[in-house]
Every structure is written in C-alpha cells, then in structure tokens.
Amino acid sequence: MKQLNLILLWHMHQPDYRDYVTKEFVLPWVYLHAIKDYTDMAYHLEMHPQTKTVVNFVPILLDQLEDFTEQFSSGQIRNPLLRLLATPDLEHISMQDRTYVFDSCFLSNHETMLQPYPAYKRLYEFYQIFNKRSECELAYVSGQYLADLLVWYHLAWMGESVRRNNEFIMRLMAQSQGFSYEDRLQLFNLIGDLIKQLIPRYRKLAESGQIELSTTPHYHPLAPLLIDFSSARDSQPDITLPEHHLYPGGRSRVAFHLSSAVTHHTQYFNEKPCGVWPAEGALSTALLKILAGQNCQWSASGEGVLINSLRASHPDASLPDRNHYLYRPYKVSGEAEQVICFFRDDQLSDLIGFEYARWFGRDAAENFIQSLEHIYHNTPAEESPVVSVILDGENAWESYPYNGYYFLEDLYSLLDNHPFIRTTTYRDYIADTENTNNVATLPTLAAGSWVYGTFSTWIGDKEKNCAWDMLCVAKQSFDLVMQSDRLTDEQKIEASRQLASCESSDWFWWFGDYNPAHSVASFDQLFRQNLMNLYHLLKLPIPPSVLEPISKGNEQTEASGAMRRSS
C-alpha cells in the first residue's frame, strides 16, 4: 500500500568558538543555542514519541557542550558573558566589561526576542539614549541596570519549553526587574543544568529508536573543496579559484575529520553513526569514496546537486517533473555504490527555514502537511515517495514567535495521526529491503552543496579565495613543522587541533558583502585569530597578511546571515 516516507533531518551545528591560546570562549552562541534550541527540540520529540526524526550533531558542537558542562562542574567559567552573569558586584566591574555587556546583550531578533517583553524593551530604549556616550558617562550606569540586562538577555534566549515548565523562570519573568545576585546565580546554575542534560536526553531518544543520530566530519570542513578546489567547476565551469590549485594533503585531512567524527560520536552516544550529513550538504565523488571507506550507509545533499547531476548524466534529455525524480534514493556509479544518497526538498525545507515564521503555527503546519499530500498524489502510483526535509535545527526558530513552539507542536501532532504520511529515519528506511530495491542510479555526481547546488558561498570571489590561499600557506607551514623535531608530541596534537578549527567551512561562509558587517567582522577576526594561534603553536612568525581584515561585509544589511535560501 502506497505511503509517503517523511524524513526530517535537524542539523545542529556551531563552529568552534574557543581561542586555543587563551582557552576563552570568544562568542556565546553554543550555550545560548543550547538553552534555547537544542533544549526545545528535544522537548518536542519527548512530547511526541511517535514522531521519528534524524538529528545531526556536528562533533565540534558536542565537544563544546561537553566543555561547558565541565566548566560548570569545576566553576572555572571561560566565557565572559556567563562570568558576568554570576559576578556578585556589577557596580564596580571594569569599563571593558561594561562595554561588553552593552555590545552583547541586545544581539538577537528584536521582533521576536525583545519587543514581546516590556521590561527588556525599556532596557533597550534606555541603552539607545546612552550608547554613543563617553566612557565617563557610561560609568554612571548602575549595577542594577547591568544585572537586569544580563538576566533579560538570558531569559530571551531561554527555550520556550523551559519558560512554560520551570517555576523559577516563570517567577523571574513575572518579577521583570530588580533582579538580585541570588536570582542571577540561580539562573546561572539552571543554564549549567540544561546544558548538562542535553547529550543524555538525545542519547535516550536514540536508544528508544525514535531518532537516528548522524554526524558530520569533525570540525565541519567543506570536504569536496579540501580534496580538490576544481570540484567547484562541476556546477560553475567559469568560477575563479584560489591561486593555490590544491589544498595541501586535503584528502587525508578529510579522512581525519571523518574518522575523528565517527570516534567521538560513538563515545558520546554509545553507537556508531550509520550516516553522514556532510558539512553544507557538500558532496563529490571523491568524498563518497572516503565515506564508503568508513562503512557509511547513507549521505545527503541538496536538490540542486541532484538536478546538476541528472543534467550531467543525461545532457541531451530534459528533466521530468520533480515528482518523478526527487523523492527516491540514489546510488552513484563507481566505487561508492554502497552509500545511498538522498536529496533535500529545497522548497519544503525553505518554507520552514524562511516562510512559516510569518504564519500562525497551525496554518503553517497544515500547509506543510498539504504540500506532502500533494507530493503523495503526484508521484508515480507504484512508488512510495521518500521526502527529505533537511535544515538548520537552531537558527530558524529565532524568527518564529515563541521559538517555533506552536508550529512544531502542531506539525508533530498532525504527523502523529496522519493516515499515509509516515515519519521515519534514513537508517530505518534503508533497513527495509523493499525500499532499497527502488534505489535509482546516478551515472555522474556533479559536486555541489545544498546552497544553489554550487560552492559559490565558500569559494570563487576575491575575499573567499584570499582566505583559502592564507589557509593553504598555513597548511604548508604546518606540514613542514610536523616533519621536523621542533615540537613535542603534545604540541603537535595542539597544533593539529588548531589546524582542524581553521579548516571549518564557517569562516568562508561569512566572507562577502552580502553579509552584515558586524557578523563579518566577528568571524573574520575569529578566522584570522585561529591562523595566528596556529602560527604561534608552530613557533613561526605570523605573516603580515594574517593581521589585515579579509572582508568588511555590508553596513546596510540587517539580516543575521546565519541561514541562506537554497535557491
């Protein structure tokens, strides 16, 4: 009997925000998303045990969550915002710390995370009056203002499931102002508890069979580009590439990231991952071979990659209606046929990522179900379609009222009771031989990512290529030092970890004038600081080019830039 197999893959990822020399967490996004999004997403699944999903955790995110758990356990906090939240006397903190609070505690979506809270809104209105004043005038801002601001920022970033179920949080929000040190300390401890519980909560969901946990190469590298820059020409033949034709030793670096990911994932969740969502859904034939070498059963990418691959495989044929090619699994001819590939429905994924935030939750959920029903009725009668909806499991909800609480509640409720839509996981889907008998074959895989089906978000313009060239030079230096006796074994391990952080795709995502200037400045500085730290650990002088900003972004762009439409 025909049914529609729906696979929701929620991708959880943050780059490594740690400075490997000072050990400080430079930015707070890991713990803020932990208490808001990772907490809420676990809650919705716990409330709907019939709903199956895939949850993809990037290992470097898990490492940082574990790091925060250890910080709370030891009392040695290495993030300035958390330290300030738990500082007894805010009246006499340094001007640098005061400025840091002002610069940090209004970074959010104001429409959904500030405007709904009158007390927090008043703090912002007051800030707008004095934010261009001199340091002497800023010194008159009271410790009570700073205390209330720190508390409200963390309340705004608190998961809706916590706000609705934790009596202490309810009391703080009702109190609205005049927060004491005891209030702040209790909030600080709650944050620690929420983070500590996360990995065990998802492990329990996986052990019950409700979710499948998948992984990504450890530090989220753009693997096809590390292997071969020219893979970008599969989808953009005329793209301008970096001056360096290849990233030195890129294939072995990808194998390292993948092997490390499998090892760490197994340690966190007590089972090896069956599948891999590559960073940015970026696939190439060379990467598939490496995945096959790790006994990976499945991988996934964007709809644009499938379209480019079908056109490359059948250049003289026109594409049929997407209902006749998108909703089935594929294998790629050659050495990696054992890896079954799935391709994301870009339209449905982008509806959740960008459109439904402006809808009433119930209306959005019903529209999503209706879209699935349309697919069901328009795919071949003899096939049970498999629909992959893959997107960020964290950044989207910042634009939704109540952190997407009503949308997710209504969506899961409708899916639980639907007569022919079945939520499943990739592992469960391919375990059914009837499904694997329907796997189609792609003669050619055109390398690309989930964004536009190309690599243009990470390579091709002057600034992105400049960053790649800087990384290539650093890797050449790394290789020379590793072959010498300049470093001890422990120092080599530290340098290798720092190099892995430099190889993250996230830095290249942010370079470009289509991103907001304040975000570009942060990530530009982080990338170059990572390179500086690498040279420091290699005991080499820092090249002058690393000291100069790569990209400035756009002062007129307000959007966060953390998410992008797929087409």
User: What is the total domain count?
Assistant: 3
Low-pLDDT windows of residues:
none
Strand coverage percent: 5-15%
Under CATH at level 1, the class of the largest domain stands as Alpha Beta
Main β sheet profile: 5 strands, parallel
Examine the secondary-structure arrangement and name the CATH architecture of the largest domain: Alpha-Beta Barrel
Shape: globular
Which structural class is indicated by helix and strand composition?
alpha/beta
The separation of the N and C termini measures: 34 Å
Helix count equals 24
Which percent bin holds the helix content? Answer: 40-55%
Q: What's the mean pLDDT score?
A: 94
Number of strands: 10
Layout: helices, strands, pairs:
Blueprint: E1 4-12, H1 29-47, E2 53-57, H2 59-74, H3 80-85, H4 95-104, H5 110-113, H6 118-130, H7 135-138, H8 143-156, H9 160-165, H10 167-175, H11 181-207, E3 211-214, H12 223-227, H13 250-269, E4 275-276, H14 285-293, E5 298-301, H15 303-313, E6 330-332, E7 340-343, H16 346-355, H17 361-378, E8 386-392, H18 405-416, E9 421-423, H19 426-431, H20 433-436, E10 440-442, H21 462-482, H22 489-502, H23 506-510, H24 517-537
Parallel strand pairs: 1-2, 1-8, 1-9, 2-3, 4-5, 5-7, 6-10
